[in-house]
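How it folds:
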Amino acid sequence: MKLFRITCSLLVLLLSLLAFAFVAVHPAAALQALNPPPSPDYTCKTVGNGTICQADSPISYGPVDTGIVCGSGPSAFDIFDSATGDQQKTRTYDQNGNLTRRVIHETYSSGQFSNPLTGAVVPYTQHDTITDVLAVPGDFSSATETNVGENIFKPAHGAPVFKYAGRFVVAPDGTIEFEAGRNDFLDNFAAANQRMCEALS
């Protein structure tokens, strides 16, 4: 009887090792149940009663049209945006494989708004943390988003033309639930936009 128990224990251990090896070699199989599934740059592991997925991804884009138009007539121009940086991303899934929380830390090593007609630029720096908490696990439309950080647009000479430094919370329906600190975009977009246009003219 003792030999039977030892044999069973060894069999269970062997099956556990095989299962672990299968997940290690075939990570996609372990992630199929996650909702919504993470992008391929994430690495996931089981912790407690859920799963945590993490990624460190570079940011690089632009110049892209922001849709912000300055002036009118022949001298009118669209503002373009370009930037490079890094994102550190974490997703937390519950025991059912549904996403409950997402956190993104962003650091822009370089960024600028530009006027493609004249080549004028306004550089910016940005450091922020975006946290999404899903009221309904797995359903991004139920997420409340909290933004904390700073974003400063400052030309080579003169004062900043745009500044955000603080915290704001966005409800699932897109309304601002809470705001603290300075946010030129939310507080007075028209005035901030005018200063940006003047700096790029």
Remarks:
- The chain has two domains: 1-32, 37-200.
